[in-house]
Predict the structure.
Amino acid sequence: MAGTAKFSSKIGIIAATIGSAIGLGNVWRFPAETQANGGAAFLVIYVACVLILGVPVMVAEFTIGRRGNSDAIGSIRNITGKKKPYWLIGVLAVIVPYIILCYYMVVSGWTFSYLVHSIDGALYTPDAGQTAVDFGAKMHKYVLSDYSPLIMTFIVIALNYGVLMFGVRKGIERLSNFAMPVLFVILFVFCIYVMTLPGAGSGVKYFLDPDFSKVRPSTFINALSQAFFSLSLGMGILVTYAAYYPKETKLARTASTVSVLDMFVAIMMGLIIFPAIGAFGDFDNSEMAGSALIFVTLPEIFNQMPNPGLWSTLFFILLNIATLTSTVSIAEVAVAAVQQRFKIGRKVSTLIVIAPLLVFSSVCSLSLGRWSSFTIFGMTIFDFFDYVATNILLPIVALLMCVYIAWIAPRNILHDEITNNGTLRSRFYRIVIFIIRYIAPFLIALIFIGNFIK
Ligand code: PFF
């Protein structure tokens, strides 16, 4: 079995894995989902989904990676052999994140642009307008334009190349070890500042006051999908990263730590965004979802704070860290696959994966502006990629991986990996095997079906 590079420290393992998990899912998706699904009521269901389903499925994915000791395709081959077709699950687990990467890079480019224009002050010049409508118009104009988003997207693609070509330790681990502490410090500073603003209390109440009348069957499905998205489950990411874990790493403990930290960041984001709107905004008129929240509502709020440039810069540094460590992890799935399947060097395999993004991401970007009249099933290419990847392919891959490790791979593998070959207690094993055999497949299937009914 060809050995892979390994992360060099426990901190590096947690930092890299949490770096993958913390991303737009926490900042962009979580507040909107929480608001749309009953505030604290959603939060309680989300926490339960992460703990009951997220942690065991994460352990299962770690098991495939560490045991298989290769990329997503090679790991499955190493476990069940070349002759059986199960490695095709690995192929899907490489393709799906790549599709996601194509448009995630575009959003990453926008966040980079907003960082640049927070620093140079262009975002907050008085003649550019100060109201939410002005910020909305600015965002709209920017996204629909041809060149500026492309240039920024190319810059973040180059940044990803710069990290990935240095490999697991000198690239991914070094970036995560530096960036994750910075992200947490900014998060704390922001949270403390926002909490002290007059009017913040109404936002906290809005975020944490449960409204059970909004809970519907779809709330559970939304909480489950959010957990999968946020924890980077159902793609080859965690399989690929776990191949870089040394034999001593405790998989169950790592999965619990990563999941809890990811949840913590999502909740902190809620404790920043809702109180900020409570202090300066208007809950009924503020856009809470996706791009509008980040590029319209928040800039409008920063603009009313003393030192808007400073707070805006801090926020977009945080967001750029979150997206960079996520895009690097999504791209690493393909880089590892190319490197190991074709036995080529790191720099060339990184180039093979990253270079086509210059075209694919450009197409996604232009599909929002100049080419927006070209649609597939009524969606722009950008939206189509997003829809197919996250609503259809992601649950399918997650389900196949779960069934693979629970029912197909030799039984002892999960036991050996959770207990580090019998040296740790096997309490977790019984819980994990029960959940991934009898509960997770049904719930993942439910997400899949639920996405169509919604
Ligand atoms: N977990 C990361 C996030 O929450 O943004 C990365 C990610 C996972 C991105 C799954 C996209 C995705 F579909």
About this structure: The chain has a mean pLDDT of 91.
